[in-house]
């Protein structure tokens, strides 16, 4: 096998984990960095021959544990397969290798006035292949869709080393089963993505209009968000910060940004940040204003680019601000039908009281995707998830239960990996779980592709 | 088994065929019209016990033969399961039974200012379940997407009679493999869709602007269409009529519509009809005008609603006009990368000369989906596809070959069914064909679901 390989302890340890906090049992046998499809095939075949499992990896930014690699595994890291192979403005597509970073790809596309819309918060540091393997979301999904809508075709190395190109280069096509969509969000369990035909679109309009609704509670802010959707408006971005999160963000920005002007005017509040775009942005924002006004203490419309940046900057500051609260954090990722969001916030407050936990939440309110974040004192002497106290796990279990009770999902955009695997059969039901296990087995009869992740 | 059933010869014959022209070997053993999921399960279980295969059917408007039912089959017709179970403006979703017609659903949604965008030409007579089973396209796909983008979840009766609910009610979600997308476009071979959770959106803007570019040839019109895409514009509709099609349409409308004003001014031409929508419709059309002007003999911008209707009416008149040319017709459905469309029209002209056939084409030029239509004298004494002469079949084979050579697909929106099955392995490749066959077997180990369709 050509290509680069590492077997030193420090590298193995670094590539055994992702950003989930999961600590695997030991380290992989090696990390390889293939530079072409043939090298990926060689790696998979070597692993198969030697009874070693394969863990595909992009930049390792995943939050669910899908890229963790324990003993007896080979990490196949795609970060050196990072070329843009083709950009066609006329065909509205780009062909790329999986290891390119999302922001790097978009920098190339922007030169042609094009854009690949998936925008996970990690986009500066996460790979396109990883975005696809996780079906990544982001801020703009309610209007611009999740990753799945922006992939036309994939070339994949299967568990037996064969290469299959699925999907197509055309916008339409119904020839055979859509297994491309099955690979999207499969978290490295069905094959290794080695080439991606991406659907691209013209750049997002530079015309933007932005407001913040300052509400008494997250329940009010969620009701305001529902009112926007019910009024048939379609903001590009609609982000909700609950009371605890808003206070943390304000505190953080007051401490770190001398130009920051606090829209809450120092009073506890939940914030709904809304941005419209396109030729009708200002007119649409006026309608948003009408929809949210009845639920808000006051509404502030950004009057300048600087003010827009400051408001959107509040959303971007959520995780730094929460980390500043002290202790460790565990980020959840439930999604509920948009109409149930207000109720979901009420339930989060109940969970806080019942388990004595601190659980600030931010939400992509346009699509009902909530990120409750447990903030806790780590268990002494432990690291990673072992440092999460038992009562926090119990509270986390109840967060999942709430999501499923409301007709929602365990994971809106982070994936199942190891962290949510235990709950997946509850969401899928027994029959679908069995069906999905059997389908996985077709792709990987011997169970060498990222075993133990997503489904048993 | 409760529910309605028919076994009389006339009904069996009527329900043995769809609109593909395929004539099956004999008639089904019975047609049943279940009224709920339990009755669908009962029908499937009865078929399984009696060694009979199952052919799911909506309105029978399919063009690929997926709903044809020969001897030894049971037709499960979903047309009586046609209820709207839920419409939620706040959650932007609708839950419906599969047998509702597309237009009927949209009439219900429009009352709430909502819209389910899939718009196959058959939408007045085709069912939502059928649209999903075929992943139907239409005029608006380049801007508004195909059916797959507008389905959140499905409830399906499997071949063993079990019921599985897949997908979700939330916009985002990455819990488990996306098997919902696999069912979409599966043409009744993986299970019977009994309930659909549809993603809906606000109604298409009533602001429209429309033009027609009158070009010397389809090659010029295709180049004009490419120029629109390359200019990063996104019309709601961009339809191309080649020279023969335009002449047929003009002839037909002159004969049938006394108010019709011919935009070609009586000279042979290929037409590119472009409609923009939304708040910036007029401004965007002006940019379209700039993009196409260099490729057109002249460009006419609709100055009134009546003129808009007249221009769009030319596209709607394509199939009636071609049928008026005399003889029988065979409609193809290839899609090619948008940049290859001009070349594809040249190849269609070559095929006309080589095989001595008449092959007018219309295209959804915004997404490269072309409908070449063979017009021919039927073989004496034969009906259906048996009446298609050998040289027309040979020419049709070459149409498919051209599509695949250009990196396109056999079928953009009509499906594989029986008509294109022979060519599918060539498009998918040997390894993917085998993979898809194995995946089908997981859903249907005994091969009772619509056997012989799509894949062997």
TrEMBL record, chains A, B:
All copies of domain FAD-binding PCMH-type, residue ranges: 24-203
Domain of life: Bacteria
Required cofactor(s): FAD
Coiled-coil parts of chain: none
Keyword Flavoprotein assigned: yes
Gene3D superfamilies: 3.30.465.10, 3.30.70.2740, Vanillyl-alcohol Oxidase, Chain A, domain 4
Keywords: FAD, Flavoprotein, Oxidoreductase
One Pfam short name: FAD_binding_4
Protein name per its UniProtKB record: FAD-binding oxidoreductase
Organism for this UniProt entry: Pseudoglutamicibacter cumminsii
